[in-house]
């Protein structure tokens, strides 16, 4: 053994020992910061304190990646100010479309209060002139998207969390490039972590054609990005300010069922109507922050006048770490609490906080038919096992849980009583509610909601229901994975 090797690994004051002490000191400083400066929830704060003090090296690395929020106020202060200013402008701009076609029956009053809550807390303007198309398969969704791109005449604003370096993405970029060559204003916004595998020249054709690109919260160090928190998880496309897409699909061959998880089941919406204004405004806010530009909100080029008509009532709700509240989660809670017959949920990740657990438990124990559809296979094993640990609690309370066996279910939906629903990018987990930027459409329409409910019921053909008996048959290895994953789910 060389002298250098011995020095590094000696326990009597060597380099490794000094490094360990340094990390421990830094961890203590982090603990002080968590207690006195960061506004974490008590349960998460206590867990971070325990991890930093009792598992110093792991805690140090984990906190750098997942935990630090001390610069959150400074990072998003300008973005928050812009959001508030522009939302007020858009809210006034859309005042004329607030006439609402109420739902039939006495239940309209319940959802009226919900609409008012989302309008007051999130500037989620209420629009009642929307046409909605639902896509549950990648082939149909991307064909509709490409058709919309090809029909664009003035502008295309294109935003996704993940854009892959594969055949589908190249096909879409080629279509965007062709429209840019024709004089259409094309902007593409990706997330720096979600798109980190893209080569530097991936958008060269688009840029040469006059298109623009930007990446949200990009690191200065090329493909190295330790900022796992504060990712822009939204999926928004707006064509000519008149047609919008929002939902769960990202862009890549795997979303066509060509990846290792097999068949891909997701849910996405195509919207025509004044709700597109809200999607356009959301894109502008994110683009201005990422590209350090100042797109003009008063320009009718991007906000064309809509022809008045009767359609689906809708609110587009966005939330993120720059928001003062967890607006999408509050919308979910309102839907669950207003249910009188059924609540159907589809989600690939399920790490709820206590408020959602209590709401779902109360609903099930009150006789509401509560069903949750969850993947049978994990794409993120840690999150999968953590989610299962929470699902077992709900099964015991009477919630029916179904594992989707056909492939991977990535849809983020809730349908209540077949009357009201929500579709978007927000998973049912703490990360989506508090740390990621998300956008969901809340739809107050019995026809659209009934179609989403039927899609859920059709999916049951490919599901296996889990029972209390399955809970008691778990192996010790499974119980260990669930316990450890659940313990750390509050911080990762």
Automatic annotation (TrEMBL):
Keyword Repeat listed: yes
InterPro entries with a match to the protein in the record: Cardiolipin_synth_Firmi, Cardiolipin_synthase, CLS_N, PLD-like_dom, PLipase_D/transphosphatidylase
GO biological process: cardiolipin biosynthetic process
CDD domains documented for this protein: PLDc_CLS_1, PLDc_CLS_2
Transmembrane portions of the chain: 20-37, 44-66
Protein topology in the membrane: Multi-pass membrane protein
Top-level taxon of origin: Archaea
Gene Ontology CC terms: plasma membrane
Molecular function as annotated in GO: cardiolipin synthase activity
SUPFAM superfamilies given in the database record: Phospholipase D/nuclease
PLD phosphodiesterase domain location: 228-255, 405-432
SMART domains registered for this protein in UniProt: PLDc
UniProt keyword annotation of Cell membrane present: yes
HAMAP family per UniProt: Cardiolipin_synth_Cls
Listed name of the protein: Phospholipase D/Transphosphatidylase
Organism: Methanolacinia petrolearia (strain DSM 11571 / OCM 486 / SEBR 4847)
């Amino acid at each position: 053994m060389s002298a250098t090797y011995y020095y590094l690994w000696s326990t009597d004051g060597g380099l490794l020992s000094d490094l360990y002490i340094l990390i421990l000191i830094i961890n203590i400083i982090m603990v002080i910061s968590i207690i006195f400066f960061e506004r974490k929830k008590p349960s998460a704060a206590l867990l971070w304190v325990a991890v930093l003090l009792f598992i110093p090296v792991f805690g140090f690395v984990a906190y750098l990646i997942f935990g630090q929020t001390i610069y959150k106020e400074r990072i998003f202060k300008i973005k928050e100010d812009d959001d508030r200013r522009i939302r007020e402008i858009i809210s006034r701009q859309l005042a004329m479309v607030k006439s609402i076609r109420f739902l039939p029956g006495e239940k309209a009053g319940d959802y009226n209060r919900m609409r008012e809550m989302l309008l007051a807390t999130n500037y989620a303007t209420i629009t009642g002139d929307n046409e909605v198309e639902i896509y549950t398969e990648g082939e149909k969704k991307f064909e509709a998207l490409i058709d919309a791109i090809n029909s664009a005449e003035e502008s295309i604003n294109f935003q996704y969390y993940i854009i892959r370096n594969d055949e589908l993405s190249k096909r879409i970029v080629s279509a965007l490039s062709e429209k840019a060559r024709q004089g259409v204003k094309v902007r593409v916004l990706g997330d720096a972590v979600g798109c980190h595998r893209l080569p530097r020249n991936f958008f060269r054709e688009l840029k040469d054609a006059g298109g623009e690109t930007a990446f949200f919260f990009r690191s200065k160090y090329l493909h190295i990005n330790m900022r796992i928190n504060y990712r822009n998880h939204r999926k928004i496309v707006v064509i000519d300010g008149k047609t919008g897409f929002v939902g769960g699909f990202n862009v890549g061959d795997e979303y066509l069922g060509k990846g290792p998880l097999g068949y891909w089941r997701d849910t996405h919406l195509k919207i025509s109507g004044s709700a597109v204004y809200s999607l356009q405004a959301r894109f502008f806010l994110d683009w201005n922050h990422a590209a350090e530009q100042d797109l003009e909100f008063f320009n009718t080029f991007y906000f064309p006048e809509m022809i008045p008509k009767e359609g689906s009532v809708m609110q587009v709700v966005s939330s993120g770490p720059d928001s003062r509240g967890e607006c999408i989660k509050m919308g979910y809670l309102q839907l669950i609490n207003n249910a009188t017959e059924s609540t159907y949920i589809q989600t690939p990740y399920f790490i709820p906080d206590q408020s959602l657990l209590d709401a779902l438990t109360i609903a099930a124990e009150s006789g509401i038919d509560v069903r949750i559809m969850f993947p049978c296979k994990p794409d993120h094993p840690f999150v999968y096992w953590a989610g299962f640990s929470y699902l077992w609690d709900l099964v015991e309370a009477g919630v029916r849980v179904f594992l989707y066996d056909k492939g991977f279910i990535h849809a983020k939906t809730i349908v209540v009583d077949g009357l009201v629903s929500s579709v978007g990018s927000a998973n049912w987990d703490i990360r989506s509610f508090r740390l990621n930027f998300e956008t969901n459409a809340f739809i107050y329409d019995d026809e659209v909601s009934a179609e989403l409910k039927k899609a859920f019921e059709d999916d049951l053909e490919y599901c296996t229901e889990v029972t209390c008996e399955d809970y008691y048959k778990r192996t010790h290895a499974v119980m260990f994975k669930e316990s450890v994953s659940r313990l750390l789910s509050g911080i990762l």
